């Protein structure tokens, strides 16, 4: 979070955190605890979750505080990338609708 705070102070207009799950794209990325999103919400800029995100995980990340997600394998590895994109967008929208805070 300290690095993100410095970036926002320097003018960043969004921050990305991850990997939240083991990622087939970046196999050496350290896994970030979900609780990171709690502190990230206080930064005052959109928060993007990245790393190992699948359709089954997207909604929960947004409910937990991410404003959006960044994916690679969830779309590129799908039999129908267009349908995968639409399904992920719907999951993000459900996550936003289900936020309690």
Identify the notable features of this structure and list them briefly.
101 residues, TIM Barrel, 3-stranded parallel sheet, Thiamin-phosphate pyrophosphorylase, thiamine biosynthesis
Structure description:
One of its GO terms (cellular component) is cytoplasm. Pfam families: TMP-TENI. The chain is α/β, with parallel strands linked by helices. The protein contains five helices and three strands. Helix 3 packs parallel to helix 5 (about 80-95). The two termini are about 20 Å apart.
Overall shape: globular
> Low-confidence segments, ≥5 residues, pLDDT <50?
none
CATH architecture: Alpha-Beta Barrel
Radius of gyration: 14 Å
* Strand proportion: 5-15%
The CATH superfamily title = Aldolase class I
* Helix fraction bin: 40-55%
User: What name does the CATH topology carry?
Assistant: TIM Barrel
Q: Tell me the major beta sheet.
A: 3 strands, parallel
Tell me the series of helices and strands, N- to C-terminal: HEHEHEHH
* Spatial gap, N to C terminus: 20 Å
State the name of the first-level CATH class: Alpha Beta
How many domains make up the 3D coordinates? 1
Helix/strand structural class: alpha/beta
How would you write the strand order of the largest sheet?
A: 1-2-3
